[in-house]
Amino acid sequence: MKKFILLISIAFVTFSCSNAPDMTQFKANLEVAKKYISTYESPTNFELFKSMTAENIEHQSPMYGVGKVGYDQVLAQGEFYMNGFENVSFKADAWLPGVNEETLLVDGSVRVYGTWSGNNIASGKEFSLDTYHYFMVEKGKVIASGDYFDATGMVMAVQGDEDATEGSSEE
Q1: Phi, psi of 92 (to 5 degrees)
Q2: pLDDT tens-digit series, residues 88-131
Q3: Domain 21-161: CATH class, spelled out
């Protein structure tokens, strides 16, 4: 039994040590991800957002039917949210390390569950939205990311009443 416990202890230490560099990378990338998220809380941070976005980024858009997009679409999405909403804040419920899909070992990427809140500038309507995001970072820039939430529903919910009737016709 003592040999078994010793063997398990050695395996645990070996696994922990072999995974340590990725946790170090996760901690560094976590700071980048937090800063990146914070740019959405102030429209004056667009240039910072842009500078932290890699030109070869691959981003999973939260908009219905859009799928994965590149740099220009990420910047357009950032501008849309930063210019269309105010009093925006993000409350993180859990910042977590990402894992390699094949090995299931920590790979330095960052995941977060949280809630966005704020209001639409045009209509004044408030929103509160639970979300999930992931970030892969390289040399201080986000090279891959994804947003999972009902973006289309949120935009429709906060639009002005005049926007909701636009395009409809009375008979």
Answers
A1: -80, 130
A2: 999 999 999 999 999 999 999 999 999 999 999 999 999 999 99
A3: alpha beta
β strands within the chain, DSSP E? 53-60, 68-69, 85-99, 106-120, 126-138, 141-148
Q: Is 124 left (phi over 0), alpha (psi -120 to 50) or beta?
A: left
In angstroms, the CA 116 to CA 135 distance is 17
Please compute the mean of the pLDDT values over residues 16-29 and round it to a whole number.
75
Q: What is the pTM (predicted TM-score) of this model?
A: 0.81
* pLDDT for 135 beyond 50: yes
Q: Which residues of 98-111 are buried (b: 16+ CB within 10 A; e: fewer)?
A: beeeeeeebbbbbb
C-alpha 110/C-alpha 133 separation (Å) is 8
- Strand 141-148 and strand 68-69: the pairing is unpaired
Query: 59, 75 in Cβ contact below 8 A?
Result: no
- The Cα 103–Cα 101 span in angstroms is 6
